[in-house]
Amino acid sequence: MSLPLHTFGTLSGDFAAPHPLKVLPLADALTTELPFDRVAIDLRSDPVGGVDLGALHALGFAAALTADSRGPGAALPIFAGLRRNDVVAAGDVIGVTARTGRIGVLYRRGADSNSLFVTERCNSLCLMCSQPPRNEDDSWRVAEALELLPLIDRNLPVLGITGGEPTLLGEGLTRILVGTAEHLPDTHLHILTNGRRFADRRMVTAVTAGRGRTTWAVPIYADTAARHDQVVQAPGSFEEALEGIHNLAEAGHRIEVRFVAHALTVPRIMGFAEFVWRNLPFAEHVALMGLEPMGLARRNRDVLWIEPAEAARAIADAARHLATRGMAVSIYNTPLCLLPRDMWPLARRSISDWKQVHAPECEGCSVRDACAGFFLSADASWRGTDIRPVTNETPEPAHAR
Amino acid sequence: MEAAFGRTAPNIPRVEKGAPLPHRVVALGDGAQVLVTNDAGEFMALDRADFATFAAGRLTPDSPAYDDLVARHLLLAGRPEVALRLLATKVRTKKAFVQQGPALHILVPTLRCHQSCLYCQVSRRPIGADSFDMSPETALHAVERILESDAAALTVEFQGGEPLLGFDIIKLVVETIRRRAPDRRVTFSITSTLHHLTDDIAAFLAEHSFQVSASIDGPEDIHNANRPLPGADAHRRTMEGVALARRVIGAANVAAITTVTRRGLHHPEGIVDALIGAGFPSVFLRPLSPYGFALRSARRTGYDMDAFQAFYRRALDRILWWNRQGVEAEEAYAAILLTHILTPFHSGYVDLRSPAGAGLGVLAYDYDGGVYASDEGRMLAAAGDPAFRMGTVRDPLPVLMASDAMRLIATGGVAEDLPGCRDCAFLPYCGSDPVHHYATQGHVRADRQPSDFCRRHTGLFHLLFGLLLDGPLEKQALLTRWGTQRLRPEAAA
């Protein structure tokens, strides 16, 4: 269920450092190899007054989280009275905005996905973008990411890197990749990119530090330039992305192809599947996705809207086409009740836990726990009219073929 | 076209209105449709009117076929260097086999055989004959040659004669390879009547994960008539061997290889039912081969290719019928052709390659130490013509590769350069087979169009494309499974 990525608390004491902080219980904090000034000690379950805050301050710790405010005058900065205590847990990394008391979770231990959001800038403007780009200098995000990396648990299996378009950072992306190699050598990177900048081989050289431990997830929305370029609102981008994918693959990088189903892409989805099979059979994974009704997708509803059941049928046919041919395929953001059962094994619980919900229509469904469910932003008008609980008696959804 | 692939040409202007890319065409069925293919094997069927507009370069984006043709690189729209780069990658993928040395190594431990099949293609010798067995010394030299190949995955196939009559040599070769190259990927296979399979031999084959092809010509009466033995029990003995092989080596590793003789020609359903009823997941229906004894006995056992086509069409339909009953089975040759048609990859099959597989993809080691560019080249030599003898097992691979036999193959090995092939729309799925055309047409560069090879394969391609483009959806899906099942991880396991 959805657990927000930030909350608010009351900040007291002299908190100057804008660094990300690792939240650790006292015992772990005292034995950690991290610099103490990057650690916030979680005292929320310790008895009030049971810990000598002055001593912790003297040791150099950055701050403490407490259940209640611990009286003024403590030298150690205190974050107290969190609006939601469950948002922050031991092992997480938080970023604190002193002015507003906002505590954001930059890394959540044990979450099904963790990502670095490295820029809001983008060189495309996809009609269904859930995270519309902003053309502002946000290079501070690179600095934050570099400070965050040492605080992430080393046993993290996969770290996402997303934006915006990460390749626009240029050398900043290089530094992030070098940082992950140093601090998270065993972590696989999953980087969302439109691939266009990789049409220039110098950009491929710039990400050499990620080779072998990175999957570059590149969206291809059609089998023709005309349709793809229309979706991403950038002429030439289809050809740039294909050249980019080839340049990456020739340099030994791993590729995932991503597709989002909506009214503009569904009509050519089978052509898309065959195109990927013929031209990109080296892709290690193809992700076929339902729409996330956020950002530009909401604004462009008129051109994008298609009954989710129709999108699911199309996704199922394309997934079957590719899976029959031995390609690794996943279906994202598509509820099981809209998919034929032979495609259920490919359907993933793809929506990050902090924005995933089930709908009232799901009441009584027997496969709820295996289902992707819905984006928090998908109200009834986006869910369509075909969502219903799956029971043993539920017939297969009508099949396209 | 090749030249354009090799260089980067950044200043070629964009093509805004679709222009045809290099392609080949063939009329399908009654001629209402035209099949258009490119060098990478991508294809599209157009009706006559669309084809005329396409060929004239006047197809416009509002035509329903336009986007499909652009996506399949039959029409060019956009930056030419991008389309050419993608096409180049696809051609490289399709012909990836040229980047490595011989992967298939056929070894003949003995020429002796206890049967005397009417159509025998391998010039077998009687079971009591001496000096038709491979010596251990020759076998060890052959192993040297096998391991000289840089192919990523090797297949060592034992043929005969009846190879199990030379089991000691099989054992020596397998164990030597395992010891010398424990880390190389080597698949062992054997084509046999299985009459001489024992518990011990089966255990050995299982230990080394052998793929077994059992020679079975269909139902008992046809099989025994084709393969006379004193007790008239050839079929029963083979099936006993099959049962033992399945038990010890695994049913999935035992396939049937069936030679279709004139006697079997009128019983396609009976032959298929006998093979599938006997539980084979894969059957290979072969026409008579024009080699060795088979050539000489052609008058008694032979037939023309039209008759084989009629047989094959019915047999294929019968296997699909079994599929629809829920029985997993394929015709192995159709599966190979379908892999070429439906996937970006080559099947690996050495007889359907351009450049030819002979010598480049396969070497055959005869019992006497002669090395041939293919098994057919070996049979031709047994019939008196050593044109494809590359040398002996004592010659290092580079010496064998520089032989006159290889020069001969090179002159007739590239279908893109051969009369009868170069304009054929089926070329991307087919092969040049210079050894076969030397044997049957008299020259490695012989015009392919009149050859039995060409008639057989164009017939198969018309049959398969007819089903893929216009057949019932269910048959399309089944044939797609045949063509792709070796690519699916669960099927490979």
From TrEMBL, chain A:
PROSITE patterns: RADICAL_SAM. InterPro entries: Aldolase_TIM, Radical_SAM_PqqE_MftC-like, rSAM, rSAM_paired_HxsC, rSAM_sf. Keywords: Iron, Iron-sulfur, Metal-binding, S-adenosyl-L-methionine. Residues 108-325 form the Radical SAM core domain. Pfam families: Radical_SAM. Gene3D superfamilies: Aldolase class I. Its cofactor is [4Fe-4S] cluster. This is His-Xaa-Ser system radical SAM maturase HxsC. It comes from Roseomonas alba.
From TrEMBL, chain B:
Pfam families: Radical_SAM (PF04055). Coiled coil: none annotated. It comes from the Bacteria. Belongs to the radical SAM superfamily. Anaerobic sulfatase-maturating enzyme family. CDD domains: Radical_SAM. It comes from Roseomonas alba. This is His-Xaa-Ser system radical SAM maturase HxsB. Keywords: Iron, Iron-sulfur, Metal-binding, S-adenosyl-L-methionine. The gene is hxsB. PANTHER family: ANAEROBIC SULFATASE-MATURATING ENZYME HOMOLOG ASLB-RELATED (PTHR43273:SF3). Its cofactor is [4Fe-4S] cluster. Residues 99-325 form the Radical SAM core domain.
